[in-house]
Specification:
The complex is a heterodimer. By secondary structure, chain A is mainly α. Helix content of chain A is 80%, strand content 0%. Chain A has 13 helices and no strands. The longest helix of chain A is centred in the C-terminal third of the chain and has 38 residues, at 222-259. The termini of chain A are close together. Chain B has helices at residues 6-27, 60-96, 98-112, 116-127, 131-158, 161-168, 173-210, 221-229, 236-264. In chain B, helix 1 (6-27) packs across helix 9, helix 4 packs across helix 5 and helix 7 (173-210) runs antiparallel to helix 9. The chains are: A mainly alpha, B mainly alpha. The interface between A and B is large, with 46 and 43 residues.
Chain lengths: 318, 265
């Protein structure tokens, strides 16, 4: 209980810090929004009126508190650029990003766990060496470059998808997911390599333990020990790492959406940043921060569910 | 028997090559990267133009050499800035502890959960375009993660005997921190540094790909990639030229990092 409370405290602190950072950075450095919006039509009266309308005439801290209170109530403000409620803009763009993130995550889990286990089982063999070298290579390729390669090979040469023509959800889930497969794979590949390396390392480290030696001495097969004991003990670091991965996939999605022209949160964020649309930037970044802390918390709690030792040691100290 | 560390030697060799290639680009390029030659538009790679030419007839190899220089400058600058500030913060908090340490680490915990790339993105967009701003933004977001590693190492070292005896002999705090402890934890920091360098290269490339934080006259590899995407069907070698250099740069330093970690075992 104490543990969960402490974790939620850190969670809230993260949200406040990140939103504060974005809020102040934008307010301090990006100039007067009212002046930009009115452009050449600016007169002192109209400027003052618009500033009052946007709440820009108040001190910064008061504005932050106002914004935070409104946000808790579900009101994210109005976009300077589109003159539409930010919540609506975000709602429209949430699905592609979320689908992309979860798709990439599914690929990571499906590929890296079997590969990690197999390479650890045959550590030092030819397969393990190939995977290690391949992994180093995959970790060195920026996802957006992978995306460009995919666009060229699968889009322009093999014509498996039409680059830039993102299908609507209404066209059917098949076409939707078919288009998202390539960007999802592009952001998943380096993460797959990292996860394989982590899992392989954890299994090999765990295999050094005394209980493994004892089981071997009792004549149990290596496979049996690996699947029934060693793997269970590597679950906690794996879950923690995967939770971090889901969180960071969102950042990866921001870039890859640009490569494949996917109308998601990332493109909204980039266009809002370019146009200094502060309400949108603040809302999107805070939303991402929320996603990140929730994923991390879920990973932590899941880890404690899996391994009771983590619970007991914490209670013992408290 | 000492096992040969192929990671380290391969990484050092590859990095030396790539760095030499990029540094060469500061002084000499095969062609003028800005010169448009109408007679060789959209040429595939050949002996005259090793990476081909773009749709204006500019030599891509020369452009990649210049662009990589920009990327390298930002990445190195980020690492220097982040390392200097991170080492200082990590050393002081790790060695002294206390409430300052406690507060900084809580803030650090909170911030490190958030993808640093997005923070840098916001920071650079408000600072305005230009390499120096990009460098500053990436350097700042690099500090917390590096400070954490440094702090852990300093904390561990501060209770060891060689530090205690240095203290008994009357060595000043600065001397203990930077003459006694720092050289001892150097290997750990070095491999953290290679990771930081690679993150900086990736972030710089991604940022300039998105068109945030670059001005067109300081073309970097990421900017070239986004430029190349429009002409992907006509001149695919443009994208490959720029991409391959990024990959080799990251691969080389990544191998060094991996090699350093394996050496300790």
């Amino acid at each position: 209980m104490r543990y969960t409370a402490k974790k939620i405290g850190t969670l809230l602190l993260t949200l406040v810090l990140v939103s504060l950072f974005v809020f102040f950075a934008f307010s301090l450095l990006s100039g007067d929004a009212a002046e930009r919006m009115l452009g050449t039509e600016a007169t002192p009266e109209r400027l003052a009126a618009l500033r009052a309308e946007l709440g820009l005439d108040k001190p910064m801290l008061a504005r932050y508190v106002d914004w935070l209170v409104a946000l808790v109530g579900g009101d994210m403000g109005v976009s300077y650029q589109y003159r539409l409620p930010v919540a609506r803009l975000i709602a429209e763009r949430l699905r592609p990003t979320l689908t992309l993130t979860l798709f990439a995550f599914a690929l990571i889990v499906l590929v890296s766990i079997p590969v990690g286990v197999v390479t650890a089982k045959y550590a030092g063999g030819w397969l393990d060496r190939i995977v290690t070298v391949l992994g180093q290579l995959l970790m060195s390729v920026p996802p957006f470059f992978t995306g460009i390669l995919f666009t060229y090979v699968f889009g322009l040469l093999l014509r498996l998808f039409v680059p830039g023509a993102f299908p609507a959800w209404a066209d059917g889930a098949g076409a939707y997911l078919g288009y998202l497969f390539f960007p999802a794979l592009a952001i998943a590949l380096p993460r797959i390599a990292m996860t394989v390396r982590l899992l392989r390392g954890c299994i090999l480290e765990e295999a050094q333990r005394d209980y493994v030696r004892t089981s071997m001495a009792r004549g149990r097969s290596r496979g049996d020990i690996l699947y029934r004991h060693v793997l269970k003990n590597t679950l906690v670091p794996l879950v923690t790492f995967l939770a971090m991965t889901v969180a960071e996939l969102v950042a990866g999605s921001v870039i890859i959406e640009q490569v494949f022209s996917i109308p998601g949160l990332g493109r909204l964020l980039i266009s809002a940043i370019s146009n200094r649309d502060a309400p949108v930037v603040q809302a999107v970044v805070t939303l991402v921060a929320f996603w990140v802390v929730v994923c991390n918390l879920a990973g932590d709690l899941l880890g404690r569910r899996i391994d009771p030792r983590l619970r007991y040691s914490e209670e013992g100290r408290a | 028997m000492k096992k040969r560390n192929y990671f380290l030697s391969c990484g050092l060799a590859l990095s030396a090559l790539v760095f030499a290639f990029i540094v060469l680009g500061y002084f000499w390029t095969p062609c003028d990267p800005m010169k448009m030659d109408g007679s060789v538009r959209e040429c595939a790679p050949s002996l005259a133009h090793l990476m081909g030419t773009d749709k204006f007839g500019r030599d891509i190899l020369s452009r990649v050499m210049k662009g990589a220089g920009s990327t390298l400058f930002v990445a190195l600058g980020t690492v220097v800035l982040g390392t200097a500030a991170g080492t200082l913060v990590g050393a002081l908090t790790g060695y002294f502890g206390g409430w300052v340490d406690e507060v900084l680490m809580r803030v650090n915990d909170a911030l490190s959960a958030f993808p640093s790339f997005l923070l840098a993105l916001v920071l650079v967009s408000v600072l305005g375009p230009g390499r120096k701003h990009l460098l500053l933004a990436l350097g700042i977001v690099f500090i917390p993660s590096y400070a954490r590693i440094v702090r852990t190492e300093f904390k561990r070292a501060s209770v060891q005997n060689y530090v205690k005896s240095a203290r008994l002999m009357g060595a000043s705090t600065a001397r203990i921190l930077f003459v006694h402890i720092l050289p001892n934890i150097w290997p750990v920091l070095l491999s953290a540094l290679t990771i930081g360098f690679n993150n900086a290269v990736l972030a710089e490339a991604a940022m300039s790909y998105l068109g945030i934080g670059v001005s067109p006259d300081e073309a970097s590899l990421g900017y070239m990639l986004s430029d190349s995407q429009a002409y992907l069907a006509a001149t695919p070698w443009y994208a490959f030229g720029a991409g391959v250099v990024i990959i080799l740069l990251i691969l080389g330093v990544g191998l060094i990092g991996e090699g350093l970690q394996r050496r300790e075992l």
